[in-house]
Specification:
By secondary structure, this protein is mainly beta. It is built from one helix and eight strands; from the N terminus they run αββββββββ. It has a single domain, classed as OB fold (Dihydrolipoamide Acetyltransferase, E2P), CATH 2.40.50.840.
Length: 137
């Protein structure tokens, strides 16, 4: 029996990300001194733990760094097979996400991708998840 997708629980650290996602914007963090981008959200910069990261809006564009095809799913909103990917964003950070709008047989390392937000849930339980799809021309 399929179960519903687990809803993220925003906290003080991740709330800016989830608020932007609801508006169709992809936020990542960046070290304001070195400019190094990072994903996933942290309270410190990965290249200098003494520096607090800042949130920036990412372009939403990237390339496929790695992937695997998942043959089965027990989650209602994620039909199988699906592609679980690592995307190298234009800003340099690598982000994990599911690919959408693509045949798993046509997925290739290095293919250009763009973010596509998928809305899940209803009412107060509604949230937007960043997914990636093949980039339009």
């Amino acid at each position: 029996m399929a179960r519903p997708l687990t809803r993220p629980i925003p906290d003080a650290l991740t709330e800016p990300f989830w608020a932007a996602a609801r508006e169709g914007k992809l936020l990542i963090q960046r070290n304001p001194k070195s400019g190094r981008a990072q994903w996933f959200p942290r309270v410190h910069c990965v290249d200098d733990w003494s520096v607090d990261p800042e949130w920036i809006e990412a372009s939403g564009k990237g390339t496929l760094y790695s992937f695997t095809v998942i043959p089965r799913s027990n989650i209602e909103e994620v039909p199988a097979p699906y592609v679980l990917a690592i995307i190298e964003l234009e800003e340099g950070a690598r982000m994990g996400a599911t690919l959408v709008e693509v045949d798993p047989e046509e997925v290739k390392i290095g293919m250009p991708l763009e973010v596509a937000f998928v809305t899940v849930g209803e009412g107060a339980e509604q949230f937007a998840l960043p997914r990636f799809r093949p980039a339009s021309a």
